[in-house]
Amino acid sequence: MELEPIIVTSIGASSWGASNPDFTWLDMESELYQKGLIHYRSKAVSIGGGGDRGRGLSRKGRSLLKEAIKRNSKISESDKKMDFIHESHLSASIDRRLDIYSEMERSRRKSIKVYINIGGGIASLGSSQNGKLIKAGLSRDLTAVEFPAEGVITRMAERGLPIIHILQIRRIANDYGISVMPYLEEEKSKIGKGALYYRETYSLPFTIAAILFLLTVIVLSLRLDVKHYIFQRKKS
pTM of the prediction? Predict the structure, then answer.
């Protein structure tokens, strides 16, 4: 697809596996990148949570997240060090993210085509209420929505960018037949299985061909019946 993502990560996570301080999303990302399974890494990272600064976490929790950022900020000599977003106010954190996107647009000489939000990061959404006002999936125009707070997602929507909003993971997984507990549903968790990969539909050309064939058979049968009836009458 020739996509060139600009990834900004909030490392704090409440669920779905990334809450292990020894194996955060950044650790997963580094593993996948080093094994060549993905080809892009986060350009910047924040602690996330309240105020995008980890408010609500314990001091120990914030310390563990900072350690994870440090060990993943540069995994090889050729890598550029990730920006650590740690602003004093949420609005400044939002502005810093937007600055990063603008800097990348200038350096790549390409404009951003779509904004994708995954999860409930406060800087990306602006508020938890914003996340509820935006439907999951693709939204092409959000200019008519009155958002109670400003976030990166609302600023991108103001630019007229399409928004892909990925929240409510359990519902999305259920819609596409993906297991949220793969160790309990092995068959459902196989790669290449389920509605995420394919959809069973009727073949329109085959259906039309079948209908035409049946109509032809019916017409021929009627003609034979009529001929037989006329022949019988002539004989009598």
Answer: 0.73
Would you state the structure tokens that stand for residue 113, as one six-digit string?
């085509």
Residue 94 belongs to domain spanning:
7-175
Comparing CA positions, the residue from 182, 104, 193, 176 lying closest to residue 136 is: 176
On whether both 156 and 209 belong to a single domain, the answer is no
β strands within 32-144, DSSP E: 42-46, 83-85, 115-118, 137-139
The angle, 0 to 180 degrees and rounded to 10, between the axes of the packed helices 25-34 and 59-72 is 10
Domain count, the chain: 2
**Residues 231 and 117 placed together within one structural domain of the fold:** no
In a domain, 189, yes or no: no
What are the φ/ψ torsions at residue 184 (nearest 5 degrees)?
A: -100, -20
Predicted local confidence at residue 187, as pLDDT: 63
Q: What is the pLDDT of residues 113-143, one digit of tens each?
A: 999 999 888 899 998 888 888 888 888 988 8
Secondary structure (3-state) at 125: helix
Distance CA 163, CA 104 (A): 19
Res 229: pLDDT: 59
Q: How confident is the model at residue 90 (pLDDT cuts 50, 70, 90)?
A: very high
